[in-house]
Write a structure and sequence with these properties.
This protein has 426 residues and is mainly alpha-helical. Helix content is 58%, strand content 6%. The chain has a two-stranded antiparallel ribbon.
Length: 426
């Protein structure tokens, strides 16, 4: 694993140097990012179920029932606190912001302490395993660094393949996370530092390989969750023309607080709690709380995924559906698009449960050319323009094709819409 992560590290640095974001993600649409986000949500829920299954095997029945209650309680309290910004006029604005920002942490602390109260203290419990001394947690290791230099040269080069797969996963995961947490609804003004983020990610991945620990890239849904907690109302003045007279219109818009303190505090807290003696505090955390945290993160990611809202359209009577643009005759194409995304996500998730799991990032990448080259043969251009868009820039692939066709036809003097561009049935 060490050399795979070292190779992944220099590959990340190479992607940053050549500014890969500009010439790779420019072709990615929300079709792929929404599928990837839904896949992460499903994986989080699946991890929660696995934790509860282990609790069922290791604990008494009464303790297992409390583990289920603790997991669901952790999730529900975190969800409730994450909406604190809407509690106005209850509490001061900064109190509401603090509750929303650290909803998960507060919920975890509550349910770490809960099993020590009253008769619950007599129940057996399964807690996180932590090291009690400043030494590697693996008893077979006497030093923190992996002796990666002892590996035969042939295996060093062979490790490039898993390193490449890890790079694809991390790069796409990071890019999607950054895109999701800076979409228009958050009103961010500062551009994303994609290249510098990839540099940092490459360095941390290399360090994880040298230390012999699993690489960490916990961005999704941490990034959108962070953005959601920083949302606030802001008043904006705009000039409008009414009967030839300019007037100032005041409107309230939602925007995130763009600052560095919350991310710095998160990183500082992580550093503190992985250091002795605070690791002992982590050792008090029941695994059921971890399951609840997984469910909360899955719910937060799912709640902002457009697939969820379009899935609700499938269950909504036709008379209650919102109106469509004039060029779209019915919801048939929209429904088929949503069902396709769900089926694709389930198929990729099933792959992650098999021995072929390491290649699932490649399947996600394959969705990009499928969307651009094949889907316009099934869906008409107006439906695709309605449900999909470029992930990193304005417009849709259909808009770009229209501009290209118009540019060609200006030179040739032919019809401004090419016949082959109107392909697609729904």
């Amino acid at each position: 694993m060490a050399w795979a992560l070292i190779h992944a590290g220099w590959m990340h640095l190479l992607l940053a140097i050549i500014n890969a974001h500009d010439w790779t993600m420019r072709y990615v649409t929300t079709f792929s990012t929404e599928v990837f986000s839904l896949l992460n949500s499903i994986i989080y829920f699946h991890k929660a179920v696995q934790e509860l299954q282990r609790a069922h095997e290791d604990l008494s029945f009464a303790a297992f029932l409390y583990a289920v209650i603790g997991a669901i309680g952790t999730m529900l309290v975190a969800i409730g606190l994450s909406t604190a910004e809407k509690w106005r006029p209850l509490f001061h604005r900064y109190v509401r912001m603090g509750l929303a920002e650290y909803a998960a942490a507060i919920s975890i602390i509550i349910f770490i302490g809960m099993p020590h109260v009253g008769e619950l203290a007599s129940l057996d419990r399964s807690t996180l395993h932590v090291s009690k001394s400043f030494r590697p947690s693996d008893p077979d290791r006497s030093m923190f660094f992996v002796q990666f230099w002892h590996l035969p040269v042939g295996w060093i080069f062979a490790a490039i393949i898993p390193g490449f797969i890890i790079t694809i996963l991390f790069f796409f995961d990071h890019e999607v996370s950054s895109i999701i947490c800076t979409i228009d609804r958050y009103g961010t003004k500062k551009p994303g530092g994609f290249a510098w983020d990839i540099v940092l990610l490459g360095i941390t991945t290399t360090l994880c390989g040298i230390l012999g620990i699993p690489p960490a890239n916990g961005l999704l849904p941490q990034a959108p969750l962070h953005s959601e907690s920083l949302m606030h109302d802001e008043k904006e003045e705009t000039l409008i023309s009414v009967d030839g007279e300019e007037k100032v219109e005041h409107r309230t818009i939602k925007r995130v607080y763009e600052q560095r303190w919350s991310a710095f505090l998160h990183a500082a807290a992580i550093l503190v709690f992985v250091s002795p003696p605070f690791q002992h505090v982590l050792g008090l955390t029941p695994t059921s709380v971890l399951a609840g945290l997984f469910m909360f993160m899955g719910e937060q990611s799912l709640s902002v995924n457009p697939i969820l809202y379009r899935f609700f359209y499938l269950l909504t009577p036709r008379s209650e559906l919102p109106p469509l643009p004039e060029d779209i005759k019915s919801y048939q194409g929209v429904h088929l698009y949503t069902i396709t995304q769900i089926i694709v996500t389930v198929v990729i998730f099933i792959v992650t449960l098999t021995k072929a799991a390491p290649v699932f990032p490649v399947l996600v990448i394959i969705l990009v050319p499928i969307r651009l080259l094949l889907m316009n043969k099934v869906w008409n251009r107006e439906t695709l323009r309605f449900v999909d868009a470029w992930a990193c820039r304005k417009g849709t692939p259909e808009d770009d094709k229209d501009l290209l066709a118009d540019g060609i036809n200006e030179k040739t003097g032919t019809n401004p819409r090419l016949p082959q561009e109107t392909s697609g049935n729904v």
